[in-house]
Amino acid sequence: MRLFLLLGAGLILSGCATVDSVEPEKPELAEHFIEATSPSTNHSVSEDSWWLAFDDEKLNTLIQLALKNNYSLKISYARLQQSQAQWEKAGSAQLPDLNLNFQHSQQWQDSSSNSASTGGQYQAGLNASYELDFWGRVAALDEQALQQYYATESAVSIQTNTVVSNVALSWFGWVKETQQLQLLHHQQQRIQNALTVVQGRYLRGTVIASDIWQQEQLLESLNSDIIIAETRQDVYRQQLGVWLGKSKLDEELIALPDHYYQIPEILQATEQVSSLALQQRPDVLQAYAQLQAASAGLQVAETNRYPRFTLSASYSSLATSPEQILSNWAASFIAGLTMPLFDGGNLAAEVKRNEAVVSEQLANYQQVLLLAMQEIEEALLNERQQLSLQTSVQYQLQLANQTQNFQSQRYLRGIGDFLSLLKSQQDVLSLERQTLGAEFSQLQYRIQLLTTLSHGRFTSVDEKESEHE
């Protein structure tokens, strides 16, 4: 009874050990951040899967395939499983060790009287040991492993954000280049029609041969642009294959539903974001977890200099037959104390090293937080400025079309020169492509902004279904 009382008291006292966390100072938020009024860590897929806002079923399918098949994500999840096992291993020290042993020995003796004798023994035992965690060393080891697990979990979220954003960028890049090819073929047809007109005027002797050559050169330049667009389209297809974990993509997977399929149009820039998004960024959470792991490591180093108390108990039995093994028991209880006396300053140096690690991780957390704020502000600025640029390009295109129509009418009436018409044609062709490029850049900046605000905790449809089964 006394033994159980001592063990129980030791468990209660050691269970009171706690690990203090380090709370760094919060920097002052910029004006673009809105203070969160009701922070919550529970998120549904419909609320946080930012790509759903584009209302693109093809993109939704591609992202779900990437979340399921991407090899870099599989690597990250394998590392997370390793970290979880390390945490479970560290936590096991908070519970007593209990071992059961059983053995049988047989002896033979040959006497001088030529009569042999034999004898056998059966031995069984139950051993238990436990470290009383008065100083919180074991709890600190568990906390350190837990925070390292959180850091690895955040690394998974970082990789998930990378995969999702690159799938979105590659898919919309594919769509944009498809639009580009459609535009180039349309431009090609227009210039071909213009060339026919110039050739007719040449046959009537109203223009010179160089007008035809310059128009043909403009037409051929469109062929070069088509080759470039086709190359970029193939590159986007290859990138999609990598992010989806496939060496070759099925054509049906990336085939556009119809001829008029276009990239989403962004009409308004984002002005402000919630500060909660900053706090939930995976790189910020990772830096915070690394700081807490370093703090727990410092506590481990400090408590290693203190005495270590252990309790051990054993029950054993020795008998000549299995039937008697329960009738002859012996019990023992040992309370042990281990204390470092002289180590040449090794433990003190380890404490200093861990103090430096805490300082390093504290500075790293502050730096990551500042970089995260700057990245979000840069994304907001890029989106706002690109929207202004897009408006400017569209207005330039409007003016260029007016100029081209004017020069075309003058040329057909024989009062305008061909170089002015050719220049206006080149301006319209270039600005039409710039308009599409500006729309795509606007979409890229929106995806960049959404990625910088994303927590990255996404799961595939198959994984969510398995969780509910």
UniProtKB/TrEMBL annotation:
Gene3D superfamilies: Outer membrane efflux proteins (OEP). Transmembrane segments: none annotated. It is a lipid-anchor. One of its GO terms (cellular component) is cell outer membrane. GO terms for molecular function: efflux transmembrane transporter activity. Its main location: membrane. Keywords: Lipoprotein, Membrane, Palmitate, Transmembrane, Transmembrane beta strand. InterPro entries: MdtP/NodT-like, OMP_efflux. It comes from the Bacteria. It is found in: Cell outer membrane. Belongs to the outer membrane factor (OMF) (TC 1.B.17) family. This is Transporter.
